[in-house]
Design brief:
The chain is mainly alpha-helical. The protein has a single domain, classed as MetI-like fold (Orthogonal Bundle), CATH 1.10.3720. 69% of the residues lie in helices and 0% in strands. It has 15 helices and no strands. The longest helix is centred in the middle third of the chain and has 28 residues. It is globular, with a radius of gyration of 24 Å. The two termini are 24 Å apart.
């Protein structure tokens, strides 16, 4: 080992910089997790702050007795499950469709158009959504009215808002996630398709018997990672699309932390929320990885 280290010392030197980065910016700040168990005081260090009541679990007890947090927890799980059920298969289907196209220029054009929304911020997307789906001046509702149909409150009614939230999320991410599956498809040997053609297999049979099994390992890894984020929530998407009429379904953990932590200055409370969220996400990640290995599939480690 020492001989190998002396021979390739430059590689270890290059590895030093990312190790320092993770140590300084990822691991050292984890000391502040203790704030969840203490009464926050801006004038004192985390070691000097007094421990909270109930053996330090004061704020954990408080968040689970707070109605707003329970609503945010419910909304986070609901929206993430809908994203998983509706959004996870979408890039797989798009990748299968693109893989079947024989006209390469049209295939590249379609792929480019599909992943361009990924580079738009949710502030821009929310502005576009308001212009398209506004109940009175939105382009979609104007067309519906001209056809003699009534307006649809896409962003002002709770069921319609959830539907619009999921659809916009799929539209924004479908193209970018498709790239991963298209890259995995390049690893499938063309000889398998040729042999299937000789045996008389049609396109659907080739997709079912060759393409999907070739994508199985990629699908499982991405599914595990998505299950690990089942209690996580992005801030910009629900915050940008939300309004007072739908706050009972749009308020998620991320917006709850922003409202109560940054604006409400309850730092111990929101640190407890973040710690609870992280622990549950790790639990789901471990369970999903264990199930994948139990059924004979390769996990993420």
């Amino acid at each position: 080992m020492a001989k190998y280290a002396r021979q390739y010392w430059t590689l270890y030197l290059l590895l030093l910089l990312p190790m320092v980065y993770f140590l300084v910016f990822k691991y050292t700040p984890m000391v502040n997790i203790l704030i969840a168990f203490k009464d926050y005081n801006i004038t004192k260090s985390v070691w000097e702050m007094p421990w909270a009541d109930n053996n330090g679990f004061k704020y954990f007890i408080k968040i689970f007795s707070t109605r707003d947090f329970l609503i945010a927890l419910r909304n986070t799980i609901t929206l993430n499950l809908l994203d998983l059920v509706c959004g996870f298969p979408a890039p797989i289907l798009l990748a299968l469709l693109l893989n079947e196209l024989t006209f390469k220029k049209f295939k590249r054009f379609t792929q480019t158009v599909a992943y361009m929304p990924h580079f738009l911020s949710w502030i821009i997307i929310s502005g576009m959504a308001l212009q398209l789906f506004a109940p009175t001046g939105g382009l979609v509702n104007i067309l519906l009215n001209k056809l003699g149909l009534s307006s649809i409150p896409f962003l002002n009614s709770e069921p319609h808002w959830v539907f619009s939230y999921i659809i916009l999320g799929i539209w924004q991410s479908i193209g970018w996630n498709t790239i991963i599956y298209l890259a995995a498809l390049t690893g499938i040997s063309p000889e398998l398709y040729e042999a299937a053609s000789v045996d008389g297999a049609g396109r659907l049979r080739k997709i079912w018997s060759i393409t999907l099994p070739g994508l199985k390992s990629t699908i499982i890894v991405l599914l595990i990672m998505n299950l690990g984020r089942i209690l996580g929530s992005e801030f910009d998407r629900p915050y940008a699309l939300s309004n007072n009429l739908v706050k009972d379904v749009s308020n998620v953990i991320a917006t709850y932390v922003y409202t109560n932590g940054i604006k409400g200055q309850q730092f111990s409370l929101t640190t407890a929320v973040g710690l609870f969220q992280s622990v549950v996400c790790v639990f789901f990640l471990l369970i999903a990885n264990w199930l994948a290995e139990k059924f004979g599939e390769r996990g993420i480690w």
